[in-house]
Amino acid sequence: MKNILVLGAGLVSKPGVTYLLKQKNISVTVASRTVSKAENLIKGFTNGKAVQLNVENKEQLAQLIKANDVIVSLLPWVHHLKVAKLCLEHNKHMATTSYVSDDMKKLDNEAKSKNLLFLNEIGVDPGIDHMSAMKIINEVYENGGKVVHFYSYCGGLPAPEDNDNPFGYKFSWSPKGVVLASRNSAQFLENGKIVAIEGKNLFLNYRIEEIKGLGKFEVYPNRNSLPYKDLYNLKDAQTVMRGTYRNLGWCDTLKKMVDLGLINEEKQNNLKGITYRKMMADMVEAKDDANLEKKVAEKLKLDRNSEVMKRFEWLGLFSDKKVPDFDNRLDILSELLQEKLVFKNKEKDMLILQHKFTVENADKTKDLITSTLIDFGEALKESSMARTVSLPLAIGVRFMAEGKFNLIGVQIPIHKQIYEPVLKELETLGIKMDEKKYRLN
């Protein structure tokens, strides 16, 4: 019997925990600050155990880690390093869905010296994106070809039938991280040239992409794509770009929010007890409240009746409702978005992931290869985001417990011995990339 410790019982954890509990010879302990959440995840399984844990209690955390074989951190990423160091101290394998931080990379040699595997980035993005891309890239090389252009886009959105607000978006957890991403700079390689975009201009640099059967979407660049040229061994690639899907109108709206100063974390001493309307008036220095909407439109160089202004009005930014008790505009906006852009009980989300490869074959012919995942949540059961994040993680953890991976150190799932069996198992759970090939010449 192998013992798995899952730290965290948040919104994406249930499908993965259930998968692990269904495996033979595996027991699962779920530790959470709110023990009722952990109890809900293991309900109905005799091989499950729920524990109350405050992750700041290092002694209790250490005891839990010591008592298990593979440690899964579904905690916020800021806690991963603390968990990783305790795993090193007690000689335990570890897995997360988070990007590998610089501090985590520094643990690589020590993990290797102890024959430990710290498997990171095994969710959906990052995770399924890595695995499905490497599968095709390696197949191209095995056939004597080379990848000339590579685009990879991913996004979590409302299912089309539940896409019923002007923003075309709904949050299933705190929106602050999504909103903050609107200030990220970006870099990518396209047609042999490095394209660098300042954070303030991120949403000026979107493009329109069409997904068959779903329609058109905006795509904006996702942070720094340049390291993926080496990471994915794309030695011949003239284009390497990763991006994020959003519904039409998102980029223009977020750009104007940035321009207006709504994504501002600086503490303000004039926000307490005021209305949204007053907050907006202060930002554009409008003394005549009656002309506020006109003033905002003028400042943003928009038509008063533009779609962006209509979204601002729908959100409630011009209302006489009092702002929540925060000392900065970012938190106030995040709270408002959380209130308005929310999934209702019977609504479903949707996950879209698509890679596009332009391939030059050994005989100099060229192909376009697409690899697409479109996954929908189940109303009142589980979200697509929860499935696609936690199931790859759970499968990876199962195989780690079974000793199927001959890898040590700090790793991500770009190796064939990881991605091949994980993708195969995901297919049995209904998560499958649809691959298509088109001749270009």
**Portion in strands:** 15-25%
Number of strands: 16
CATH top level of the largest domain?
Alpha Beta
Name the helicity range: 25-40%
Quote the average pLDDT.
95
SS class: alpha/beta
Number of helical regions: 16
Q: What low-confidence regions span 5 or more consecutive residues with pLDDT below 50?
A: none
CATH topology of the largest domain: Dihydrodipicolinate Reductase, domain 2
Can you characterise this structure?
The protein is of the alpha/beta class and 441 residues long. The chain folds into 3 domains: 2-119, 3-Layer(aba) Sandwich (Rossmann fold); 128-252 and 345-381 and 433-439, Dihydrodipicolinate Reductase, domain 2; 254-340, Orthogonal Bundle (Domain 3, Saccharopine reductase). The protein contains 16 helices and 16 strands. The strands form 3 sheets. It has a 7-stranded parallel β-sheet with strand order 3-2-1-4-5-6-15, with helices on both faces. A hairpin with a 3-residue loop joins strand 10 and strand 11 (215-221). 41% of the residues are buried.
